[in-house]
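INTERNAL AUDIT FORM
Audit reference: QA-55
Scope: verify that the stored structure record matches its stored sequence.
Auditor: D.O.
Record contents follow.
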Amino acid sequence: MKKILSIAILVTCILLVVQSRSYLAAKKIGVVASRNILSEVNVFQLANQEMRGEVDGEQKKIEKLSSQLAQESIANEVTHLRISAGLEAVTGEGIEITIDKSIPAFWIVDLLAQLTSSGAEIVSINGNRYLDRTAGLRDVSGGLLMHSVFLRPPYSISVIGPQIELRNAVSQTGGFVDRIKKTLPEIGVIVAQRDSIVIR
């Protein structure tokens, strides 16, 4: 009986030692797991801070780029308005039309309409830019009055725009040149393509 009791006590002690070791091991695992989780949280926080820094940097780049684009857009609009107002010289391809004698104003008005519908961007007559504010031609004693400028023949009309389309428009059957030849055969009209025209 004593022997059985001793064995039971021994088994109980062994079980207590094993259970104690298991508890300590589990506690140690919990501490390690807790440390690992804290370490991972720290890594995520550092990564999050880095990402925020990168996002802030990219946001600043976007704001700077947007500001530059806005400034460029405004500068382009100002240039366009200056060109439209006749305050900037313009260079480009186009055509030059020479009319050797005086003709009624409505012919020139008709020519300008035909040129505009064919892609004319900038037009000048005898070196005077034709603008919205100078629009309107009137017959005046052997010449033309454009706003307050008197134009004498021969008329030299410089046009910046797609030169082939412009030349074809005025030279085609039924176009300006064809109608002038049929109606006013004494008027000489020359149409020449130019790779570079400067209109001030």
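Auditor finding: record pair retrieved intact. The mean pLDDT is 80.
Action required: none
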